[in-house]
Each structure stands twice: as structure tokens, then as C-alpha cells.
Design a protein that fits this description.
CATH superfamily of the largest domain: UreE, C-terminal domain
CATH architecture of the largest domain: 2-Layer Sandwich
Helix content: 40-55%
Structural class: alpha+beta
Strand order of the largest sheet: 4-5-3-6
Shape: elongated
Number of domains: 2
Oligomer: single chain
Length: about 110
Amino acid sequence: GIIARGRMIVQSRRETLLAQYAAPVFEVECADTTGLQCWANGLRQRVWVTAVSVENVTARVVVKDIELAKRELLVSAVQADLILDRYEEIKPSLEDVFLRLVGEEGMQ
């Protein structure tokens, strides 16, 4: 289960929590940090993107629609003239689920 502020938010098996609450995430690495930041800023305007963060040479992209992201994310990086060192769909962790649920709890 997930507990926040001394209260049980949700109780399920680990596999169920991951399947139900984990948001799809992609990580992209590129040595051109300026280009990566510009590309990330543009991604924030896409309807299928939930959040984008850039740290050093890595952009982390959280998406709403994984199928659309799989079709468009890499294409948009190529159109931005980025030379990628890594492009990977990340399997969300239980920590990602916790952070998402605790964030939603704070909004209520």
C-alpha cells in the first residue's frame, strides 16, 4: 500500500499499483544540452506530454498516450536535429507511483 501523511492512500499489490498508476516515461540523452533544452521546451506544448524535465544531458518525458509518444517522440528529436546517445522507454518504479499519488493527494 501507499501511505502519505500517516494516511493510507491506496492499498493494492505492487503489480496492480504499477499497472494502474504508473505513467509512461521516456528518457533521451544528448550531448547538445542547448538543443536538448529547446526540444524539451517544445515538447511541453504537445497534448500527449504530461511533463518534461531536463537534467544535464538527459531529458525525462512523462506521457499520457504511450502509442502516440512512440510514434512522435523520436521523430520530433530528429526534426530538432538532435544527435541522440540514448532513447529509452523507462519502466516506472514504485517510487514513481508514490510520487504521483502523493502529488494527487496534495491537490485534493
